[in-house]
Specification:
- With 462 residues, the chain is of the alpha+beta class.
- The chain has a single domain, classed as Cytochrome P450 (Cytochrome p450, Orthogonal Bundle), CATH 1.10.630.10.
- The chain has 18 helices and eleven strands.
- The strands form three sheets. It has a five-stranded mixed β-sheet with strand order 2-3-9-6-4. Strands 1-8-7 form a three-stranded mixed β-sheet, with no helix packed on it. It has a three-stranded antiparallel β-sheet with strand order 5-11-10.
- β2 and β3 form a beta hairpin.
- The N terminus is likely disordered.
- The chain binds protoporphyrin IX containing FE.
- Protoporphyrin IX containing FE binds next to α13 and α18.
Length: 462
């Protein structure tokens, strides 16, 4: 087995990581990065290779690119490459005492409580919910019309996530207050919040007010459950019954915080990826027909969407994976270097912000052939381009902070597009959009509308 590269691996004097060309005094590469980070970072890789340095104002960054460099990055211990130091902007949203406000060990323990709630039996139930919500959403669309796709996918995934990842009571409140509070909380994730999360500006005040509203709602639900002895099989209940290793139960504030962590990690990312996948499929009509044929074959006999059926839909799965490759919702992942790191013959000093970019790495021509093309077949044998290296695809991260919701996300994306393609003929009503790099999760720039019409064929679902 290959040993991870580390400080002792070479006797040569370590070199400084080379800088990407085009930096300015004081602002460094800020303008290029704001305009199009993926082009700028890809240029860095082409110019200088696996490790490149750049500056955003006073901050020094090093980008690790390519499967081997990812492997090194994701294996690094938390006391060397630290997530908590970078994700402090989430503390006012998730709350005190959870996630990036506590030690990595406690965060792991907190998220660990949820693993049983993501097991196969739970997934079977979630698939039914995903199907019901997607079908109900399709019903609201009527026979034909035009829809803003990012908005539609956001609404749908809020409903699915609130029902599956929190509890039915929260889903019931989506239209009467929860969606609005959640939206205000989301607005708290902005560039200012990243650097100065506690600055008293309007967006932060609405964020804090929304946080209080959500906490009240969750506490009320928990109180009602305790009083009525109701114990539904969901994330909230799992946390209400959990105990830390030292025997302590979680208080309402911690439960709220963990639920918000999962909701924030899983909802908007899913909405954005669902949007990109739809957009790509609409410009790949022959592949889209293969997905429909596969769905016909899968559900012809039962007419019921189930976990086993979704798992069989490999043609659709490849399209989802290709969506993840071309449009990873999180285009960069960041850690703070707490102890100097040596990678091959370069040294990355403490204090640097270390980055991997799924969007850049998923476009490496030596890893993915013809990388700009939407070509789901790249994932089928014999090419199986994703299997050539453990860390070729990193849209869901890797190492100790890898996404715990990847399977959930894949099932959800597959359920949504199976239902919509079964129900409607669809086409783009606007030009294929470019990415909007202005927010933390990279979706398409507006306008992004699709036109739909009910299909003449009967639905495959009963
Ligand atoms: C398309 C949808 C999704 C994408 C693209 C995505 C992507 C990611 C990525 C890249 C990370 C690693 C972040 C980092 O290393 O800094 C991550 C972490 C995480 N994801 Fe997801 N995710 C998605 C859906 C979900 C869902 C549905 C859930 C919940 C069921 C979820 C829960 C989490 C959590 C809790 C973490 C933090 C893990 C940790 O830091 O230990 N994600 N996700």
């Amino acid at each position: 087995m290959r040993k991870p590269l580390n400080n002792e691996d070479t006797l040569q004097e370590p070199k400084t990581v080379p800088e990407i060309s085009g930096g300015w005094p004081l602002i460094g590469h800020l303008l290029d990065f704001q305009k199009d980070p993926v082009s700028m970072l890809s240029r860095g890789w082409r110019e200088k290779g696996e490790l490149v340095r750049f500056r955003l104002g006073p901050r020094e960054f090093v980008l690790f690119t390519g499967p081997e460099a990812h492997d090194f990055y994701f294996r690094a211990p938390e006391d060397q490459l630290n997530a908590k130091a970078v994700y402090q902007f989430t503390v006012p949203i998730f709350g005190r005492g959870v996630a990036y406000d506590v030690s990595p060990e406690i965060m792991t323990e907190q998220l660990g409580f949820l693993f049983p709630a993501l097991r196969e039996t739970a997934m079977r139930r979630f698939v039914r919910i995903m199907f019901e919500e997607a079908s109900e959403f399709a019903d609201t669309l009527g026979k034909d019309g035009v829809v803003d796709l990012p908005h539609a996918m956001n609404e749908l995934t809020v409903k699915i996530a609130s029902r599956c990842l929190i509890g039915q009571e929260v889903r019931d409140q989506v239209d009467s207050g929860f969606a609005e509070a959640y939206h205000d909380l989301q607005k708290g994730i902005n560039t200012l919040g990243f650097f100065l999360p506690r600055l008293p500006v309007t967006a932060h005040r609405s964020r804090d007010q929304a946080r209080r509203k959500v906490a009240q709602l969750f506490s009320r639900i928990m109180a009602e459950r305790r009083l009525g002895g109701i114990q539904p099989d969901d994330f909230m209940q799992t946390l209400m019954q959990a105990r830390y290793k030292d025997g302590r139960v979680l208080d309402d504030e911690e439960i709220t915080g963990i639920l918000l962590t999962v909701l924030f990690a899983g909802q908007h990312t899913s909405a954005v990826l669902a949007t990109w996948i739809g957009l790509e499929l609409l410009r790949a009509p022959s592949y889209l027909e293969r997905i429909r044929d596969e769905a016909q074959d899968t559900y012809r006999e039962t007419g019921i969407m189930e976990l086993s059926g979704l798992k069989q839909q490999v043609v659709l799965e490849r399209a989802v994976r290709e969506g993840e490759r071309l449009h990873p919702p999180l285009i960069v992942l960041i850690r703070k270097v707490l102890k100097p790191m040596r990678y091959k013959d370069h040294i990355v000093p403490a204090g640097t912000l270390a980055m991997v970019s799924p969007a850049v790495s998923h476009r490496l021509p030596h890893v993915f052939s013809d990388p700009e093309q939407f070509h789901p077949e790249r994932f089928s044998p014999p090419a199986s381009e994703d299997k050539q290296h453990h860390y070729a695809l990193i849209g869901f991260g890797g190492g100790r902070h890898r996404c715990m919701g990847k399977n959930f996300a894949y099932l959800q994306l597959k359920a949504i597009w199976t239902v919509l393609l079964d129900r409607f003929d669809l086409c783009l009503d606007t030009a294929f959009p470019t990415p909007d790099y202005g927010s933390w999760v990279t979706g398409p720039r507006a306008p992004c509308r699709i036109r739909y019409r009910l299909r003449s064929q009967a639905s495959i679902f009963r």
